[in-house]
């Protein structure tokens, strides 16, 4: 998208270009806007007030569906994550939708957690899946349906941004309809396969698998494992939370793949003799990725080896958990819609052209917002707090280790309560790209834009740091908006 970075243009021309960008907003038809209420018809709000009374025991179900088309060469399927006009040539491993149904048997209803092997999904598409599930009537008393993306950079485009070119939709319509139907099938099948048993959680610390490529160097090195042990002795179900971009195959991949989570699962299955495995990503903004990314970025052959190596290493980390604690049968969850102001002219342009399909609203001030949502869930008696975030969260927004006025690009502090201070649970983690994908979520004090071509060109600050992530973000107010919405949501549930 850096189409003008080599042009040496006069200041007057730069000013004209900058002004013309704002005119994009005039071409958004009124029919493109909707209301929060209309866009949230199938968003289940969960518990109005959290309970402290545990149920009789856990009931959990798991199901999976293969999403990969049967013949990848029968149609054009663009690979998402790096380059436009990159059609898939073959399949390395399948994309899946994997769903887990959780019920604490308190009578307040069950919760769905589902992960799709893809780069990201709009909330509008998530709501299409929710509609199929809810209108089927096959899951009575379900109080929350949460669908997240694993953020694989070698999966079929589910957002539209990686088509033939920047202005063309990369989504395959038939594939998207199939994905939605099969994901709904997986969710319903998870409910139908439910069993009684015990639920445990444990953690392990990463040592050398991850790197953070943007200051502050601050990432969540803790892998969290939830393990359901059915009373009938059938296969356990593992839910793994680990914060890492799924991009081990590098930028020159030509194969469809779930990336390292597929090979993490293979290792766990081999070690357990057949466990069910679901991977959910964490706070990966900023940018948290695999340690050898620079080696494989432009070397596809090396990436083919590394994706399996890295996945095996993560799988071994999962199996190294030695501090399991039993979770009391109690699940509380609450969800609220939120309007996120979108200043990114590039994203609005492709939304006007129908490439992106996120629901948008318009305020009386003229500000355009993406209608998204935040969710918070607790498992056990204040044992686990889970922040479900609609994008790629910078880890410092969870930890509170923000850049100072002296070290940030804008020379200011970031004065917001971090996620970790919003919950008094013993253990906390982020589920990223959950129920939406709105891009990178960056503290405002380090949100730095190109002076006259913002969001189209990347730029560097006075200290020489590159600010690529801003071109894939909704705007500088996003972080504060989401943090404040989460804080209000959690406070309202007490």
Task: List key phrases describing it.
494 residues; nine-stranded mixed sheet; 20 strands; disordered N terminus
Strand content: 15-25%
Work out the helix count: 10
Shape: globular
Q: Main sheet?
A: 9 strands, mixed
Could you give the order of the helices and strands? Answer: HHEEEEHEHEEEEEHEEHHEEHEEEEHEEH
Uncertain runs are: 1-8
Distance between the termini: 45 Å
What fraction, in percent, of the residue positions are helical? 10-25%
Protein structure class? alpha/beta
* Number of strand segments: 20
Integer count of domains: 1
The averaged pLDDT comes out at 95
Task: Tell me the radius of gyration.
Answer: 22 Å
Give the gist of this structure:
The chain contains ten helices and 20 strands. The protein has helices at 11-22, 36-39, 123-136, 173-192, 260-272, 293-296, 300-319, 345-352, 396-399, 478-492; strands spanning 58-66, 90-91, 96-103, 110-116, 142-149, 195-205, 210-212, 222-230, 237-242, 255-256, 276-281, 288-290, 325-326, 331-341, 360-362, 368-379, 384-388, 392-393, 427-431, 440-441.
Report on this model:
Strands 1, 3, 4, 5, 6, 8, 9, 11 and 13 form a nine-stranded mixed sheet that branches. Strands 14, 15, 16, 17 and 19 form a five-stranded mixed sheet that branches. A hairpin with a 5-residue loop joins strand 15 (360-362) and strand 16. The chain is built from ten helices and 20 strands. It has one domain (31-337, 353-437, 478-494). It has helices spanning 11-22, 36-39, 123-136, 173-192, 260-272, 293-296, 300-319, 345-352, 396-399, 478-492, and strands at 58-66, 90-91, 96-103, 110-116, 142-149, 195-205, 210-212, 222-230, 237-242, 255-256, 276-281, 288-290, 325-326, 331-341, 360-362, 368-379, 384-388, 392-393, 427-431, 440-441. By secondary structure, the chain is α/β, with parallel strands linked by helices. 23% of the residues lie in helices and 23% in strands.
């Amino acid at each position: 998208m850096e189409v003008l970075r080599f042009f040496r243009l006069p200041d007057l021309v730069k000013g004209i270009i900058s002004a013309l960008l704002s005119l994009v907003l005039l071409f958004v038809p009124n029919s493109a806007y909707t209301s929060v209420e209309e866009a949230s018809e199938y968003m289940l709000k969960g518990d109005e007030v959290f309970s402290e009374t545990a149920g009789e025991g856990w009931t959990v179900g798991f199901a999976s569906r293969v999403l990969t088309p049967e013949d990848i060469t029968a149609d054009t399927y663009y690979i998402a994550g790096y380059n436009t006009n990159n059609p898939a040539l073959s399949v390395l491993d399948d994309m899946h939708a994997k769903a887990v149904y959780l019920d604490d048997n308190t009578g307040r209803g069950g919760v769905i957690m589902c992960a799709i092997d893809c780069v990201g999904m709009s909330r509008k598409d998530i709501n299409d899946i929710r509609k199929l599930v809810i209108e089927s009537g096959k899951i009575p008393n379900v109080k929350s349906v949460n669908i997240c993306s694993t953020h694989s950079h070698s999966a079929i485009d589910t957002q539209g941004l990686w088509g033939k070119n920047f202005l063309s939709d990369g989504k395959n319509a038939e594939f998207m309809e199939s994905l939605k139907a099969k994901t709904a099938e997986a969710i319903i099948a998870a409910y139908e396969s439910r069993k009684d048993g015990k639920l445990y959680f444990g953690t392990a610390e990463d040592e050398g698998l991850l790197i953070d490529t943007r200051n502050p160097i601050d990432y969540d090195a803790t892998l969290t494992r939830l393990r359901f042990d059915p009373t009938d002795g059938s296969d356990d179900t593992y839910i793994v939370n680990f914060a890492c971009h799924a991009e081990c195959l590098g930028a020159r991949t030509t194969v469809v793949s779930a990336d390292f989570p597929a090979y993490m699962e293979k290792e766990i299955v081999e070690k357990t003799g057949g466990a069910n495995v679901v991977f959910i990503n964490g706070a990966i903004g900023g940018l948290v990725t695999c340690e050898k990314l620079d080696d494989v970025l432009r070397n596809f052959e090396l990436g083919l080896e590394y994706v399996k190596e890295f996945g095996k290493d993560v799988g071994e980390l999962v199996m190294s958990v030695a501090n399991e604690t039993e979770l009391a049968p109690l699940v509380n969850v609450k969800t609220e819609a939120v309007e996120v102001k979108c200043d990114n002219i590039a994203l609005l342009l492709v939304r006007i052209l129908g490439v992106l399909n996120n629901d948008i609203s318009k305020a009386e001030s003229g500000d355009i917002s993406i209608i998204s949502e935040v969710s918070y869930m607790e498992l056990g008696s204040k044992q686990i707090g889970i922040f479900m975030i609609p994008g790629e969260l910078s880890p410092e927004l969870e930890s509170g280790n923000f850049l100072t006025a002296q070290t940030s690009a804008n020379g200011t502090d970031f004065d917001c309560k971090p996620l970790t201070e919003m919950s008094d649970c013993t253990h906390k983690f982020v589920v990223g790209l959950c129920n939406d994908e709105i891009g990178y979520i960056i503290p405002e004090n380090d949100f730095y834009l190109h002076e006259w071509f913002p969001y189209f060109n990347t730029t560097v600050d006075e200290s020489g740091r590159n600010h690529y992530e801003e071109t894939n973000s909704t705007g500088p107010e996003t972080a504060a908006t989401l943090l404040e919405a989460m804080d209000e949501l959690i406070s309202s549930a007490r």
